[in-house]
Specification:
Elements (H helix, E strand, L loop, with lengths): L17 E2 L5 E2 L27 H11 L3 H12 L10 H8 L5 E6 L3 E7 L9 E6 L4 E5 L9 E2 L19 H14 L4 E4 L2 E5 L10 H7 L11 H15 L3 E7 L5 H15 L8 H16 E2 L7 E2 L2 E8 L5 E9 L17 H8 L33 H14 L4 H18 L4 E4 L2 E3 L5 H10 L3 H9 E5 L4 E5 L2 H31 L7 E9 L9 H31 L13 H8 L4 H10 L5 H12 L6 E2 L7 E5 L4 E5 L3 H6 L4 H8 L5 H5 L3 H4 L27 H7 L2 H17 L2 E8 L12 H11 L1 H10 L3 E4 H7 L13 H12 L6 E3 L3 E4 L3 H159 L2 H7 L3 H179 L15 H5 L1 H8 L3 H9 L7 H36 L5 H39 L3 H4 L4 H38 L2 H16 L4 H56 L4 H58 L26 E2 L5 H10 L3 H7 L4 H15 L3 H21 L4 H20 L12 H5 L8 H36 L29 H17 L4 H24 L7 H20 L7 H4 L1 H11 ...
Parallel strand pairs: 9-23, 10-19, 10-23
Antiparallel strand pairs: 1-2, 3-4, 3-7, 4-5, 5-6, 8-9, 11-12, 13-14, 13-19, 15-16, 17-18, 20-21, 21-22, 24-26, 25-26, 27-28
Helix pairs in contact: 6-7, 7-8, 8-9, 8-10, 8-14, 9-10, 11-12, 11-14, 15-16, 15-24, 15-26, 17-18, 27-28, 31-34, 31-35, 31-48, 36-38, 36-41, 38-41, 39-40, 40-41, 42-45, 44-45, 44-46, 45-48, 46-48, 48-49, 48-50, 50-53, 51-53, 54-56, 55-56
Length: 1916
């Protein structure tokens, strides 16, 4: 540890920006180091920083500063110690400050950091900066008046998007954030290195970067060589485990939803794949099978993630000494138990509860009495019971399936579900208050009764203890009732306790399933743990999580510091103190004595302890003493801790309750007394309950929740265990975890959640920065930047900065050259250090060197441009001058000619003008005169017409006046009469008025009044009385009126209610009226439609009548044309014949196309077949290895030779090696029993292997049948008649071979059944083989299926034997039997002529067989003739039918007639084709059946011959060695045969195969000599008619070749040699087989050497399979030799020197697992190819086979190169594309030199060529996109997009590919249908064929050299 030094505040407050000519950000020679201020957003508390060597320098500077200007300069130097070190000191600094236009980062509230450009020069003392933002706005950025801190500088564009963040020149937060964003958004790259940390950003999209091809690409690679990937981290851990023999850990952390679980899963998949455990017990599958279980019981929906993991887990993957996976173990940490009883809004409980509720309708779940999740208190609090897009019922099925895979039986599964359902019902238990201190449960409470039934406990007892508790004192025990609130809390605590116990129980069973009995040698741990958490309300869970992250961050800091120190010491760099944040004080605050956890535990022990009193204790203890502890201003129930990532405020409420985790012991006792057997298991003692998690024999550390030290059993101990706090348990488990991690080598993966909405490839800067600060990435940057972050090897530095050196500076010693150059470029030696292998630079120096390099290149470009432009302009000027003189000469001559022409034209124009003007004037005069005359005539006529109209108007005016004046006189008269009458009326009215006046005066007089009013008084009195009576009546009426008003009001109310009701009815009536009206309108419309329809009907009838008439007319015309059509009948027939010919031609073309398709299918089938052979050979090798291992383990002697039945046919010998393997498959089981008696039989592995072998055999048989069928079709189409006898003979053999194969298969299966039964009965564990055990049931099902297969095989054998008997009876009639007995008697008489009798009998049998074949052929010919007669008859009928059809067609119109006739003809031809196809299929079936029968016949005949030979007495065969075949040999030359004795066979094989050295044979002897010798031996055995000798020799040959290849399979010469000889042996078997197809190229002498007695066609197939296996092994050897060379030679090595330069790299290449073995170049590859080619040619390999090998080699080169190109961002540049194209051209040149251009090898390089072209083409416009799409037809869309995304400029002159251009490419290629796979399959092997290549070498001329040691062989 470094000493603690007081932190000195930063005093520097200014920064320097410079601007290059290109406008990019540059720095001075000692560019500013922003390592300290880059992380200022994370303030460091006082006393928590270890300060390095700069503190003393800063103090010295402060002492020397006197003036403000110098103080400003000192601040600059203090903050950026790299400035001012160039010659000139401060003068140089001031010059650098005068330049503007630098690019900087400024803080932004929305985007966190925003890019800007400096517009105005910065001067010391300026308070603001004038900046120009990228969006086009100008901004005045004010500096902090206190610190005057300047913005961070931006890195050059060439460094943006680097794989490693430490490769950036300026290391600070905005640079890190911008680099991650560019890689994630623009390049779609989710992984980035940050020193030793892998930063993984969740893309929220499935990416094709996790396939097995990617795993193979990363396997064996150094970590810095490939692009960042989780596989690279896993490979690093795996290699370090194997190299250092030290356990490893991969720590995966991050927020919920960041992808931690997925990253851990991919890491485990990588280990399972590269460790070779895929074919064994696949632990990775088991671990992945545990994921659904752990997710269902440990994951839940939160506001941030729908599948948030609420616990941490650490999985140890164990490896054996060979570093293969043997087992795994899981630890869990801090399960969030509070979620069981409470969920926040929009959150859910654990998934398993909702899965159970969704599956409540399943019959077996009826007993759980579940329902909707909303019905349960524990699942409805969050209000979000459903997750969108998730089917809980289906997830439940996955969970149950995973439980079954991990060995949890159905009964245990139902037990788990019962407990979980009981927890749900327990949550619905309600309490009723009696008083404030007691409560009760309602009687017969349904939820409680269901809980008790499910748990198997007593209802009354559980009801009692839910409402009471037991208090124990020193003397007495009290039972005390509890309040309703306490009872509810106790119920929830019981539910949490049950769930936690069940969780632990499930984890234990998962560990049991993953446990292995094999001793563990080492392990790799994968830690998937929660990241730093801060919410609006933070409680106990967040406190524990952040506490764990503090510990992990401390371990991470120390590890990073340690690695830095090791790197410096390794390179022998002087070690200096590095300032880094130490969070030990924060950890002490939490876990030390009187820390937060200690005070919490102490408060939990207090009788009346509460959250408030605990908070007060925290304030009193830490508030004034610890700067990391704060109190919120507005709360007395919360506290704030300054964590390494951020300040977090914790609410004290609930801390005590969660820490106590109090469960009443009485309730636990009730559960322990349950009748449900599984429930008491959960509550056993700690040692028994979690025994799988305790320390094992392999040295694993105990898991979580176990005590640090085992406690002794004492009375009351269980109560104490229940009182142990959760914080104490978590602290212990965390200490154990840290001990484990400290004992391993850690590897870090930090998962980042880019946004909270799960949008694919969407980057939220705020969220990203929060996580980067919390996960330690910026701390890595801080530590790296404090020292020498940029590190180059000497070769890399020389290659990159060679342009800065002069020729005289370049020395042979690269190290000295680099030292000399750096001393000239950077004068301050503190800015760099020279290590043993690397140069170390401080931050900013690389940017300065890049600036110098860019300036040098720019100056060189300008000089080149200047010279070229001057030369071009000079050349252009001279060319223009000569052109100008020529132009002037021609122009002047042209101008003189034009002037003369002008003069002539002027004179001519004057004459023309004179006459033209005269013509114009005269014409104008004539026009004027004519116009004048016309005007005069029109004017005079107009005046005359006006005069006439005037006279006419005057005449008509007189007439009008006459009538008007008469009318006026009459009007005047009428008006006068009217006035007179009116006056008379007025006068008479006046006189009448006067008379009326007189009468009125007279009426007013007294006398008149009296006369008129006599008796008036009496009338008045009477009227008065009437008035009084009316008043009385009025009063009565008023009273009645009031009464009536009251009645009226009541009636009015009634009427009003009635009125309202009537109004409602009226409204309804209105609605009904409206409906009626609408219906009436519809009726009216319908009536209109009806009328319209009737009118249309009438019109249609009229048209129909019209049409009928027209039709009649047309028919009459057609009748007239009928005679003409009859004449055309013959022409139509001729056309039909021609069309039939055309149809025939098209059918032939289709047949040709189908044939081609069949050939393609045949190639595919051949490929599948060869892959199966490869798999078979792999299994065979695996079997041999296991057999050897078992032999060594049990120390038993090797098994002796196994005899075979001599009655078997030759086919048995072909498959001797395979059948022996099949029969001894159970040997590992038998031999393993004594060695490992305690280990139970791994039945799952055995059944898996057995099933796999059965599937392979079935698939092989199906493919063989399909191959036979297609080959038969091709042979039948070529030469059907010629090959019929041969095919029949082959089919006869096939039938017998099939029978024998079935019999051997039956024997093998019987043996396997017996061995299985024996193993189960003797050595299996009782729990595995118990009748109810799952393994027993699976095994019984497997045995039943095997028995059924045996029965089927028996039935097939019986059917075949019955067919043999029936066919035997058909072949041999009674007379043949009598003849055979007579012949046998005659033979017995001729004892001295036994050989003649034998030959005679064989001849007779052959004649009879041929006779029967001829008879069957005769019958088949007769049947064919009969079929032809039937076809003739059908053709006649068809002809008649066509004539009738033509007669009918003649009555149709011409167009319809032609169309109908053509349609009919097409239909007829189609039907004929279908009939022919059906007949062809029937004939194929018949032929196959006959072939099988012929095979049976041939086999039977062979058995009869053998039987007859056995009946001959020994005396008849005394002279057997003297063969009569030797008698006709008249010449003394050799016959091309080699004779050897039976006992010399092993010696022959040993000398010729096992101990033969290919190199000597290839150099000194003829090619293929062993093959010729073996065939000549086979010829001799055939000549002797010795089938046992043939079988034995061929079997020994095949097995010996396999043995040699197994022993020396890695030697290319050996494999090539035996591939050549195997092919030659196969060709010899074909050439001398006697088949006409193979004898065409033979000489007559060679035809005499053909085999006579045996047909070895089946052995040819076996040899062909062997040749395929050897070829595949040869390809693997080639690949192993070439693979280390390809990447280095094709990609990394600079074949064209100086074209490409190395970009700045990261911190280091992270590993030194593989020592440098020398750099391979392209010449190395070419030399290796030459070596391969020369060896194959020396061995006499067929030219066609050599072409196939070369094609495969070039495919491997192209595939591996392209795959590495797609996975390496540093290789995707323009210069690298040029290098690749040059390298490919060299490979093509090699093909031309070897005359192999037609081998197809060049085509395999086409994807690589197109990828190189893609790197070099222009990538800007839409035309460029179209060109790329048309050019890259051999690349997939994914590959094109990947290359464009990875394209990285090496120099700043190159431009990046824009995102819009990549989107354009994707849009154009979206319709292309290609494979989504990113990488090429480098393991793909093309199907190999062995074309027949006959040898012209005569066998009799072959000499056997003495060097082979074959003197015991004699030439015959």
């Amino acid at each position: 540890m470094l000493p603690m030094i007081v932190h000195v505040p930063n005093v520097c407050s200014s920064l320097v920006w410079t601007r290059s000519e290109a406008g990019s950000c540059q720095s001075n020679p000692n560019a500013p180091c922003q390592c300290q201020e880059s992380l200022e957003p994370l303030p460091l508390p006082p006393g928590q920083c270890m300060q390095g060597r700069w503190s003393q320098e800063i103090e010295e500077m402060e002492d020397k500063v006197t003036s403000p200007e110098k103080a400003e300069e000192a601040k600059l130097k203090a903050r950026y110690p790299h400035l001012g070190q160039k010659p000139g000191g401060s003068d140089f600094l001031r010059k650098r400050l005068q330049k503007g236009f630098a690019r900087v980062w400024i803080p932004d509230p929305e985007e966190v950091w925003k890019s800007a450009e400096l517009l105005k020069d910065y001067k010391p003392g300026d308070k603001a900066l004038l900046l120009h933002l990228e969006e086009g706005k100008d901004l005045e950025y004010h500096l902090d008046p206190k610190t005057k801190e300047l913005p961070h500088l931006r890195n050059p564009d060439i460094l943006v998007g680097e794989n490693d963040l430490t490769a950036l020149s300026y290391l600070h937060e905005p640079a890190v954030l911008h680099n991650l964003r560019v890689r994630f958004i623009d390049s779609k790259l989710i992984y980035t290195y940050c020193g030793i940390v892998l930063v993984a950003i969740n893309p929220y999209e499935q990416l094709p970067i996790y396939g097995e091809d990617i795993i193979n690409a990363y396997s064996g690679q150094n970590m810095g060589d490939m692009d960042p990937h989780i596989f690279a981290v896993a490979e690093e851990a795996y290699k370090q485990m194997a190299r250092d023999e030290r356990n490893q850990s991969i720590i995966v952390s991050g927020e919920s939803g960041a992808g931690k679980t997925v990253s851990a899963k991919y890491a485990m998949r990588y280990f399972a794949t590269v460790s070779g455990s895929a074919s064994e017990a696949n632990v990775e599958e088991k671990v992945l099978a545990s994921n659904p279980i752990m997710e269902s019981i440990g994951n839940a929906k939160t506001t941030r993630n729908d599948n948030s993991s609420r616990f941490g887990k650490y999985i140890e993957i164990g490896f054996d000494k060979r570093y293969r996976i043997i087992g795994a173990n899981m630890r869990t940490y801090l399960l969030e138990k509070s979620r069981v009883v409470f969920q926040a809004e929009e959150e859910r409980n654990y998934h398993i509860f909702y899965q159970l509720c969704a599956s409540a309708n399943i019959p077996e779940f009826k007993m759980l009495r579940l329902g909707n999740a909303n019905n349960f208190h524990y699942t409805n609090q969050g209000g979000s019971p459903v997750i969108e897009g998730v089917d809980d019922a289906k997830e439940m099925a996955h969970t149950r399936q995973a439980c079954t895979l991990l060995g949890i039986s159905e009964s245990y599964q139902m037990g788990i579900f019962r407990i979980l359902a009981g927890i749900l019902h327990l949550g619905n238990v309600g309490f009723a208050s009696r008083d404030s201190d007691s409560c009760t449960i309602p009687p017969k409470h349904e939820p409680l009764s269901i809980f008790c039934d499910l748990m198997g406990v007593d209802y009354e007892e559980m009801c009692h203890w839910l409402c009471h508790r037991k208090l124990a004192t020193a003397t007495e025990t009290y039972i005390k009732p509890i309040s309703k609130l306490q009872a509810t809390n106790a119920r929830d605590a019981l539910a949490k306790h049950i769930y936690a116990k069940l969780f632990n129980w499930i984890v234990d069973h998962v560990n049991q399933a993953l446990h292995s009995a094999v001793k563990q040698h080492s392990f790799i741990g994968v830690l998937d743990i929660y990241g730093f958490e801060t919410f609006e309300i933070n409680s106990f869970e967040q406190f524990c999580i952040n506490y764990a992250n503090e510990k992990l961050q401390q371990q991470f800091n120390m590890h990073v510091f340690k690695l830095e120190q090791e790197e410096y010491m390794k390179e022998q760099i002087p070690w200096t103190l590095i300032d880094f944040y130490d969070n030990q004080p924060c950890i002490n605050l939490i876990e030390s004595k009187l820390g937060i956890l200690d005070l919490l535990d102490e408060e939990c022990k207090m009788p009346k302890g509460s959250d408030d009193t605990w908070a007060q204790k925290l304030y009193n203890t830490h508030l004034s003493k610890c700067a990391l502890f704060e109190k919120p201003r507005l709360s007395n129930k919360a506290f704030i801790i300054q964590h390494f990532a951020d300040k977090v405020e914790y609410q004290c409420e609930g801390f005590l309750e969660k820490n106590k985790d109090t469960v009443f012991e009485e309730q636990i006792k009730v559960l322990k007394s349950s009748k449900f057997k599984m429930l008491p298991e959960l509550f056993q003692d700690d040692e028994k309950a979690i025994s799988p998690t305790s320390a094992t024999s392999s040295g694993r550390i105990p898991l979580t929740r176990t005590p640090a030290k085992p406690t002794k059993g004492r009375p009351g101990q269980m109560a104490k265990e229940h009182k142990k706090t959760v914080g104490h348990q978590f602290r212990n488990s965390l200490h154990l975890l840290m001990e484990t991690l400290n004992a391993t080598t850690p590897h870090y993966v930090r998962c980042i959640k880019p946004n909270d909405f799960k949008f694919p490839f969407t980057f939220d800067e705020k969220r990203a920065v929060q996580q980067l600060r919390a996960c330690g990435v910026l701390e890595t940057i801080r530590i790296s930047a404090a020292g020498f972050p940029s590190r180059w090897t000497y070769q890399e530095f020389f290659s990159r900065y060679r342009v800065l050196m002069k020729q005289k500076d370049v020395l042979s010693d690269r190290k000295q050259t680099c030292k000399n150059v750096l001393e000239k470029l950077i004068l301050d030696k503190d800015k760099y250090q020279f290590g043993k292998t690397k140069i170390f630079f401080r931050a900013g120096q690389v940017a300065y060197l890049e600036k110098l390099r860019a300036d040098k290149l720019r100056a060189a470009c300008i000089r080149i441009q200047k010279t070229i432009r001057g030369w071009l302009l000079r050349k252009k000027y001279l060319r223009m001058r000569r052109a100008a003189i020529t132009v002037q000469r021609y122009v002047r001559g042209y101008q003189a000619r034009c002037y003369a022409k002008f003069l002539r034209r002027t004179r001519a124009a004057t004459i023309v003008q004179k006459y033209w003007r005269m013509y114009v004037v005269r014409r104008r005069y004539k026009i004027t005169r004519a116009a004048t005359i016309v005007l005069q005539s029109y004017l005079r006529g107009y005046l005359a017409r006006n005069r006439y109209h005037k006279i006419l108007r005057e005449h008509k005016a007189v007439i009008i006046q006459k009538w008007v004046r008469g009318w006026l006189a009459r009007t005047r008269y009428k008006r006068s009469m009217h006035a007179i009458i009116y006056l008379q009326c007025c006068f008479r009215r006046m006189m009448a008025k006067r008379e009326l006046k007189k009468l009125k005066i007279e009426a007013r007089s007294v006398e008149r009044y009296k006369k008129l009013h006599i008796g008036m008084e009496n009338k008045i009195m009477q009227l008065q009385r009437k008035v009084d009576e009316q008043n009385k009546d009025y009063k009565c009426l008023m009273e009645k009126l009031t009464n009536l008003e009251g009645i009226y009001n009541s009636e009015t109310e009634k009427l009003r209610s009635d009125l309202e009701r009537l109004q409602l009815s009226e409204e309804e009536a209105k609605v009904a009226t409206g409906r009626v009206l609408s219906l009436q309108e519809e009726i009216a419309k319908l009536r209109k439609d009806l009328e319209q329809t009737q009118s249309e009907k009438k019109s249609i009838e009229e048209r129909a009548d019209k049409y009928k008439q027209e039709t009649e007319q047309l028919v009459s015309s057609l009748k007239e044309e009928n005679t003409l059509l009859k004449q055309e009948k013959e022409t139509l027939n001729h056309l039909i014949v021609e069309q039939a010919k055309e149809m025939t031609e098209t059918m032939e073309k289709k047949l040709v196309e189908e044939t081609k398709q069949l050939e393609l299918d045949l190639n595919d089938e051949r490929l599948r077949y060869q892959n199966l052979l490869n798999e078979f050979s792999r299994l065979e090798e695996r079997y041999d290895d296991l057999k050897e291992e078992m032999t060594l383990m049990v120390n038993v002697p090797k098994p002796g030779h196994k005899r075979t039945d001599s009655t078997h046919s030759s086919n048995e010998s072909e498959y001797t090696f395979s059948s022996e393997i099949a029969e001894t498959e159970d040997i590992p089981l038998r031999t393993e029993e004594p060695s490992e008696k305690k280990v139970p039989l791994d039945m799952s592995l055995f059944l898996k292997l057995q099933k796999r072998v059965t599937e392979l055999e079935q698939e092989k048989q199906v493919m063989q049948d399909e191959l036979d069928r297609k080959e038969e079709q091709m042979l039948r189409s070529k030469a059907k008649e010629e090959e019929r006898p041969q095919v029949r003979g082959a089919e006869l053999e096939y039938e017998s071979l099939k029978r024998q194969e079935l019999e051997s298969e039956n024997k093998k299966l019987k043996n396997e059944l017996n061995e299985l039964r024996k193993a189960l009965s003797e050595k299996s564990a009782p729990e595995v083989t118990a009748p109810g055990a799952p393994a027993y049931r699976v095994l019984m099902e497997q045995l039943a299926s095997v028995s059924e297969e045996l029965d089927v095989r028996k039935e097939e054998v019986l059917i075949l034997r019955s067919q043999l008997v029936s066919q035997k009876e058909a072949i041999q009639p009674k007379n043949t039997m009598t003849d055979s007995t007579i012949l046998l008697e005659d033979v017995q008489k001729m004892k001295d002529k036994g050989e003649i009798a034998q030959a005679y009998i064989g001849l007779k049998e052959t004649n009879r067989l041929l006779e029967s074949q001829l008879q069957s052929q005769k019958r088949s010919h007769e049947n064919e003739a009969e079929a032809l007669r039937g076809e003739i008859q059908s053709l006649k009928e068809e002809n008649n039918r066509q004539q009738q059809l033509l007669a009918q067609n003649l009555q149709l119109p011409p167009e319809a007639r032609i169309e109908a006739s053509l349609q009919h003809e097409i239909t007829r031809l189609t039907n004929e084709n279908l009939d022919l196809m059906e007949q062809l299929e029937k004939q194929d079936k018949t032929v196959r059946k006959l072939k099988k029968q012929l095979k049976v016949f041939a086999k039977k005949i062979g058995e009869l011959e053998v039987g007859q030979m056995e009946n001959i007495s020994p005396g008849q065969i005394i002279d057997e060695p003297i063969r009569p075949v030797n008698i006709p040999r008249k010449e003394k030359d050799f016959q091309g045969m080699l004779e050897y004795k039976k006992e010399d066979e092993q010696k022959l094989v040993k000398n010729l195969i096992l101990e033969l050295k290919p190199r000597g044979v290839a150099v000194n002897l003829i090619p293929g000599l062993p093959a010729y010798i073996l065939f000549m031996c086979v010829r001799h055995a055939d000549y002797l008619n010795d089938d046992q000798k043939v079988r034995s020799l061929l079997t020994s040959t095949i097995n010996s070749i396999k043995k040699v290849l197994k022993k020396r399979g890695d030697d290319f010469e050996t494999v090539s040699f035996w591939l050549s000889n195997t092919c030659r042996f196969l060709h010899c078997l074909k050439q001398y087989s006697g088949e006409e197809g193979f004898m065409k190229h033979n000489t007559s002498r060679q035809n005499e050497h053909c085999l006579t007695n045996f047909d070895l066609a089946e052995y040819r197939q076996v040899l062909s399979d062997l040749a395929i296996q050897i070829y595949q092994q040869l390809v693997r050897v080639l690949e192993n030799i070439l693979q280390p060379m390809i990447v280095s030679g094709m990609l990394e090595h600079e074949t064209i020197q100086g074209v490409s330069g190395v970009k700045p790299t990261g911190l280091r290449k992270r590993t030194s697992s593989i020592a440098d073995e020398g750099t391979y170049t392209l010449d190395s590859i070419l030399r290796q190819l030459n070596s391969f080619h020369s060896v194959m040619c020396q061995h006499g390999m067929d030219p066609e086979l050599i072409k196939q090998v070369v094609k495969q080699m070039f495919y491997i080169v192209g595939a591996i190169t392209l795959n590495n190109l797609l996975l390496r961002k540093d290789m995707c540049s323009w210069s690298k594309g040029m290098q690749i194209r040059y390298n490919v051209s060299q490979l093509e040149e090699w093909l031309r030199d070897k005359n192999l251009m037609n081998s197809g090898a060049k085509e395999t390089l086409e994807p690589l060529i197109q990828a190189a072209q893609l790197l070099q083409v222009k990538k800007k416009t839409d035309d460029d996109a179209e060109a790329i799409c048309s050019m890259c037809n051999a690349l997939t869309t994914a590959q094109i997009v990947k290359v464009l995304n990875l394209y990285t400029p090496v120099n700043e002159f190159e431009e990046r590919v824009s995102v819009s251009f990549i989107r354009t490419i994707q849009m154009r290629l979206r319709d292309r249908k290609d494979s989504p796979q990113l990488l090429m399959d480098a393991k793909h092997i093309f199907p190999v064929t062995f074309p027949f290549n006959p040898s012209s070498l005569a066998l009799e001329t072959i000499q056997i050299p003495a060097s082979l040691g074959l003197g015991f062989i004699a030439r015959v």
